[in-house]
Amino acid sequence: MAETYYLPVAPHNCGGLVLPAASAHLAANLTNLCILETVRRHYLDEYQGIVTGTPAVVDGALALPSGPGLGVDLNPAVLARPDAVVEKTEA
Predict the structure, then answer these.
(1) DSSP string, 16-83
(2) What is the pLDDT of residue 4?
(3) pTM over the 0.90 mark
(4) Which of 8, 15, 24, 65 would staple 19 via disulfide (CB 3.0–4.6 Å)?
């Protein structure tokens, strides 16, 4: 709707793990993007090492991750950590 009325949008990205990659892909496709808010502390500090392919910020721009899908995957080593809790559900 915002694009229809030539209004700028500023998506809010305040999460970790997969959200920065999804937000980067969204922002790259918005013709009326003003700015993409992001909290790098979440994915460069608090969640570091949980996913592979964390988007890099270069000169204030969030680069699109490479690879299929969103470009991020769960790091298999996370499941081997002593503090990891793995729960399985029955379908």
Answers:
(1) -TTHHHHHHHHHHT-TTB---EE-HHIIIIITTTSEESPPPEETTEEPPPPSSTTS-EE-GGGGGSTT
(2) 93
(3) no
(4) 15
